[in-house]
């Protein structure tokens, strides 16, 4: 797992031993996303469709702007508590590239406010989230930190 922070952009990359067709639904199927990321997900993965993710201690929502299975997914992102403010939204892009029997998954989270609580939270969050997804897809079980959150429902 690598993560790079530049100004208002965070780029996290993970290599996962799975084909793109297996990885992509873990971002668009509510039942699958709950397995590795949190407690509840409401997703309408089509351009203009909305999403809401409940992580237990926080929640995020936004709208899909581009859906290109199984290669790319782009959506806006804001903490639910700040969702009424159009300036609170950032953008998340998932790029899924096949590579020698695995995928290179790159998450680019940009249009962030430097020094904001959102930037601080996702700087720690994306590496954890992607590691949990990798662990789930390669072993069948997510990382314990996310499994505890799900079990607390």
**Beginning-to-end CA distance, first to last residue:** 29 Å
Largest sheet: 8 strands, antiparallel
Form type: globular
Mean pLDDT: 87
- Number of DSSP strands? 8
* Low-pLDDT windows of residues: 146-153
Topology-level CATH name: Alpha-D-Glucose-1,6-Bisphosphate, Chain A, domain 4
Counting DSSP H or I runs of 4 or more residues, the number of helices is 5
Top CATH class = Alpha Beta
Give me the CATH superfamily.
START domain
How many discrete domains? 1
| Rg (C-alpha, Å) | 14 Å
Secondary-structure element series: EEHHHEEEEEEHH
Q: What class do helices, strands and sheet pairing give?
A: alpha+beta
- Read across the widest sheet, the strand sequence of neighbours is 1-2-8-7-6-5-4-3
CATH architecture designation: 2-Layer Sandwich
Describe it for me?
An eight-stranded antiparallel β-sheet has the order 1-2-8-7-6-5-4-3. The C terminus is likely disordered. Strand 4 and strand 5 form a beta hairpin. The longest helix has 23 residues. It has one domain: Alpha-D-Glucose-1,6-Bisphosphate, Chain A, domain 4 (2-Layer Sandwich). With 153 residues, the protein is an alpha+beta fold. The protein starts with a strand and ends with a helix. The protein is globular, with a radius of gyration of 14 Å.
